[in-house]
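QA checklist item 7 of 12: single-chain prediction sanity check.
[x] sequence parsed
[x] length recorded as 381
[x] structure emitted
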Amino acid sequence: MNRRLLIVAGEASGDMHAAHIVTALKSLRPSIEVDAMGGEALRAHGANILVDNRDLAVVGLVEVIGHYPAIRRALQTLKNHLQNDPPDLLVLVDYVEFNLRLARHAKALGIPVLFYISPQVWAWRQNRVKKIGKVIDKMAVIFPFETRFYERHGIPVRYVGNPLVGKVRATAPADDVANTLGIDRRHPVVGLLPGSRRSEIARMLPLFADAAAAIREALPEVQFVLPVAPGIDHDDIAARLPSRLDVRVSDRFGAYDLMQLCDAIVTASGTATLETALMGVPMVIAYRVSPLSYALLRRLIQIPDIGLVNIVAERRIVPEFVQGDATASNIAAGILRLLRDEQARARMIADFETVREKLGDLDGSREMARLIDEMLPADDA
């Protein structure tokens, strides 16, 4: 009897992580059938896509309202699937509010639930942890410090390693990438990483473009690269940038291929901060949400930093410019310091090694596949 899995990923990074998990799982259970909410990565790795996630990835309490009809339709589609064609296990990847609603429905139907990539309850609204414990069977976490939090609240938890470990590396030779994009490696290169969600890019890219203009004014020979996230339209990104900046926007190479060329990077808060640290590239973090979202969130957040690289380090090793502090002049000053101050560069790169050590060396995709295999019934059961 073939076992069936439903895996739900609401945005590009979750889609990528889920795809790697599916590949690892198929080496353990070649006959596994996988349905999913996801995108191109899961589709390419053999999952049957029930809901395409491209229009669902938004950030901020206010921003979600504009996408609510699409989110509600997706949730209802998956609820119907759980009801009419129940899987042996539901695996939820991040995308917290949506996935916890789905978990509640699955739990009521008696379907086991594994949640992967913990909601950041340790950062804000810690009272949610008890509600989470009632609708999931196990939490799979990607940061070692998270296990202590869930164990303290009596919720089954396992650290499965960070999915980025061992995967953050360039695959194309640096000289080939530089030659293709027309990059002169004798001059500084700055990467622009405005996020992987459409709403996030629309909000952050104009700010990053203004910062790039300020950097170029101070350093005319500087060059800019911008990797296009999966599911994002290359031409749309290019059209949003002033032609005078001459940013090399690329979807031909992977993000890590472009990052290896960079002397410094401006990145939105999120997974990209860890990826940049693992690539060993000095960075500054900048982030904005709508004023109303920020007013609500700042009352709830209980940790001093928002960048994952700083959270893992358990101290601020990378400058953060958030909301009102996220200005072109602040970002430009931060990048120019990293380009000009060798001691500041060396100190940050050394701090990145500490982050790498804290994450350990577990293969996150393989460990998740093993955990899923444990939670599934035997194929002949």
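[x] summary fact logged: Residues 194 and 204 are 6 Å apart (CA to CA).
[ ] second reviewer sign-off
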